[in-house]
Amino acid sequence: MPLTHAIPRPLVRFNQWTILLSVLLSWITGYAWLLAIPLVANLLGVLCHFNPVIRFGKLFLRKAPTAYIPEDAQQQKFNSSIASICLASGLVAFLCDWQVVGYVMTTMVAIASSVAIAGFCIGCFLHFQLKQWQYRRSLKKIV
């Protein structure tokens, strides 16, 4: 999917639920490899523009994808990048038996996905701040 493509909000939420539930299940069961499910899905989304979780969720949409509130694909790519970094760091930390680092990294992604499910996107806020910083920096170069 091209970067200008919009993703229906229910699919974005489904991806966020997948991240959150994978993290919680990895904590409960002690199977760090459960983090690989959202990690691989989000990495594929970032690198190949194909997120299998979102593709699977599309099967359950009751209306046409365009009938839902759209989420910007570029924004979701940024959010997935952050989630992938946190999930990969957490997975590696758990596999190296660095429990504190693993819990810190997975807690960050769990909080971010929980807050996003509730309606506030931390990644969107960070992306906006980054764009503002880049814009202000470009103005300084002009002057």
Largest sheet: 2 strands, antiparallel
- Strand numbers in spatial order across the main sheet: 1-2
The Cα radius of gyration reads 16 Å
Percent range for β-strand residues:
under 5%
| Count of individual beta strands | 2
Q: Any idea what the shape is? A: globular
**Tally of DSSP helical segments:** 6
Which class of secondary structure composition applies to the elements? mainly alpha
What integer is the average pLDDT?
93
Regions with little confidence, pLDDT below 50 for 5+ residues:
none
Count of all domains:
1
Order of helices and strands: EHHHEHHH
Portion in helices? over 70%
Distance between the first and last residues' Cα: 38 Å
Explain what you see.
The chain has 143 residues and is mainly alpha-helical. The protein is globular. It is built from six helices and two strands, in the order βαααβααα. The model has no long low-confidence stretch (mean pLDDT 93). It has one domain (6-142).
Characterize this entry briefly.
The chain is mostly helical and 143 residues long. The protein has helices at residues 9-29, 36-48, 52-58, 73-95, 99-118, 122-142, and strands at 6-8, 70-72.
List the helices and strands and how they pair.
Elements: E1 6-8, H1 9-29, H2 36-48, H3 52-58, E2 70-72, H4 73-95, H5 99-118, H6 122-142
Helix pairs in contact: 1-3, 1-5, 2-4, 4-5
Distinctive features:
2 strands, about 140 residues, globular, mainly alpha, single chain
